[in-house]
Amino acid sequence: MSCLFNSLSYFIHDNSYDVRQKICNYLEENKQIMDGLDTKFILNLENSNYIQDTRNISTWGGAIEIQAACNIWNSKIIVLDIRSAEKIEIEFIPLDNSKTTKLYRLEWSGAHYEPIR
Questions:
Q1: Helix 63-72 vs helix 39-46: angle between axes, to the nearest 10 degrees?
Q2: Could you give the C-alpha distances from 28 to 3, 63, 89, 109, in angstroms and in order?
Q3: How far apart are CA 66 and CA 47, in angstroms?
Q4: What is the pLDDT of residues 20-79, one digit of tens each?
Q5: Separation between Cα atoms, residue 19 and residue 9, nearest integer Å
Q6: Residue 10 — pLDDT band, cuts 50, 70, 90?
Q7: What would the CATH number be for the domain defined by 3-115?
Q8: In angstroms, rounded to a whole number, what is the distance separating the alpha carbons of residues 96 and 42?
Q9: For residue 51, which of 31, 74, 34, 35 has the smallest C-alpha distance?
Q10: Domain extents for the chain?
Q11: CA-closest candidate to residue 55, choices 2, 115, 114
Q12: How many CB atoms lie within 10 A of CB 92?
């Protein structure tokens, strides 16, 4: 399993496989991930089999999946990039920020996500 989906499952209280599938379903339905961008277009830039590949439990997740999770669970996700001395925080917010009810924090080392408890 991918550490991103494992980390999200810690907060969402659903197993990481189901979290992964819900995110893939969201993307497959071509629901918007960001204002002004067509989801299918963005995914096809990455890989024409992006969603199919992401359903595989050995495939890593990243920014696209984090943004989809924000939209699905109406949550703000802050990713702390620990690779630099500045410890940069990257904020992901749902499309409808007025409905945001939860805040999740993840740590990212460049190769691994971990929930900040």
A1: 150
A2: 22, 16, 29, 28
A3: 18
A4: 999 999 999 988 998 888 888 888 887 889 999 999 999 999 999 999 999 999 999 999
A5: 6
A6: very high
A7: 3.90.70.80
A8: 20
A9: 31
A10: 3-115
A11: 2
A12: 20
